[in-house]
Amino acid sequence: METFILILCILAAVLISSFISRFIPRISTPLVQIVLGAVMALLPIFPRMQLDPQLFMVLFIAPLLYYEAHTINKVELLKGLRSSLSLAIGLAALTMLMVGVILHAAWPMFPLAAAMALGAALGPTDAVAVSSLGESADLTPDEHSILAGESLFNDATGVIGFQFAILAAVTGSFSLPQALGEFLLEFVGGIGFGLIMGFVVNWLFESARRLGWETTTTRILLELFLPFLIYLVGQNILHVSGVLAVVSTGLLVRFDHTGVGPNTSKANIVSSSVWKVLSFSLNGAVFVLLGMLLPAAMGTSWRDRRVSNWMLVATITLVCLTVIVLRFLWTASVLIFTKDRETGSRQRITGKLLRSAAVMTFGGPKGTITLSLALTIPYMTDDGSAFPMRSELIFVAAGVIIVTLVLANFALPLLAPSQNSEVPAQQVEKSIKVLRGTVRELSSRITDENRLAIQHVIKQYNHRIAKLKSQIGQYSPKDFQDLQVQTMEWEQDYMEERLSRIEQAQDQLEQKLKSENTKIEQPSASTQSETQTDAEPSTEAETVADRDADAQLFDQRSEHGNDQEELLNLRSQEQAARKILSTISGSLFHLDRGGELRWRAYTARRRIKGLLHSQFHRLKHLTQQIDKDQVFIAGRHLQAEMNHFLIEKLYSELGKGRFKTEDLLNTIINHQMIESSAEGKTEYAGMPAVRDQVEEAKREGYAIELSQIQDMVESGEISRTTARKMRRNVYVMQVDADSAL
Q1: Could you tell me what percent of the chain has a pLDDT over 90?
Q2: What dihedral angle (degrees, nearest 10) is formed by the CA atoms of 682, 685, 689, 690?
Q3: Is the whole model's pTM more than 0.85, yes or no?
Q4: What is d(CA 389, CA 108) in angstroms, rounded to the nearest whole number?
């Protein structure tokens, strides 16, 4: 029960650290977690903890190294592999030797073998710390790949060197040929076993997928089980380096990059999410454990009156200087002898090179592996005496860990200031390029049958482009607002001109009706007078003439009736046009233009002018109120005409550079959908055929996106790591679309 409570407390500390880090961004999360762990160790309410180094390696380090190796950029790692192995093997061995010699020379109370054991423990850098601290600094791809590669491979060097140094300290004897032979056996054997397991795992997962046996649950469970199995078999059964076996397997496995389809995509998404949560939890737990161990590791020596505390502080200072100076000189030498990728010549000693060497020096802090190795120092030697200076060695190791972590936290941001906006900006621009290419390809596939569906999908792509632009500051809502204002001004100009033509037609028709009324009334009056005064019967010729006159009068009255109907229609259009103009003017007047008084005055002047013109026209023509239904129908026709005009106007703006292409396309699609709605062609949500076309268009878009990404990878425009991230986003949307179906 105490163990279970301890686990819950550690996870709670990890969770709390993620919230605290938001308020103190200058302090890296690992340091916050170490402080929380130290507080937990000092408070009596939390259970005490003792670390089992073997359990720690298999439970924490194995899965973290596997995940780090699996997700690392393989291309960049291969480019810097020689430098990484130089640091992982050469520098680790030199650190072991020099720390031992200098510490023994400064204070002979530290036996040479014991001091070399401390140097071996200080050889490995903390892969977790390197990964976490790298997020707070702007490391170049070369620097990041070298540091990451070093942290993957130097654990084996440190562990093996530590074992031989402790063996020499305990037994008093040491054989260099035997040590080198066992080192090569563990090193080469661990890598070889890991490579074999990588091929086996790839075959196993791909065969299960091909036979249809793979499910998301079995895939995730087997993948989580993999690093523990490989480490335990390599370390305990084959007696090779379990760390290198896990790293080699993680570098080689590729089963999650093969296979395309909704099921594979869903499994990849779930696997990625599970590993992210597990990685964050284990990372945090490692540093919380480190914080919990530090007070006990340092307290014993600090409270020992037989040892001067100033001597302990001086020892930590000397060891830190030795480790840092050695690392700086070694990394600078590696950079000098590394050929430039572009020129092929060796690099000169410049300020940029020295800065890069300093970055890689402070970018390799010590961590929990160092402390876990120090805690395995035995209490007794073979002759039954106490192991010399055991507590002091643990104290020094803990002090060096704290110093290197603090230096990394504060020195890296100064040497390589974080410019997080630039790298994501490049990635976002590549994503925008992919989306634009997808929009172009979808646009070329538009037909009369799928127009509505593809327009709907293109609109979603344009929204995605706008969101991506807003993330890197390239998209301004003001640009879209300017287009909206311009669109409404075009609407206002069009409707004013249309209203002017309606009024002219109305004036002409009213004049025509007045003249027709005069013509109709005159024949009617003359006929009536003749009937009253002439009672004599008419001749046959006169009767025929009267019938022709009556027919002509009937035609005039019919035409008069058509003109009356046309006038009624024009009056309906007039009232509808005035309502539309009033709405547009009101929208423009209330539109927020940043408090521009000139804009307010301009829109108010046009609005008042329109109202005065409307009132003058009503008084002049005594326009009667028309039925609301007729005005509504007339308004629909006018809006359709205006909408068609706007679409042509917006298309003419493409390529001129006045407005953003995505904003123009979005506005065009909106008006096209309005036009289709007015014609009774949309409401696709209620039309199964169109809805199916939308889903099909989405799938076409996802396929186009993936092909665009692959083309960019093959052309070298983006890295495989960037492509993997971009593909993952497409997979997520594919799974969502399939789930919706």
Answers
A1: 5
A2: 50
A3: no
A4: 11
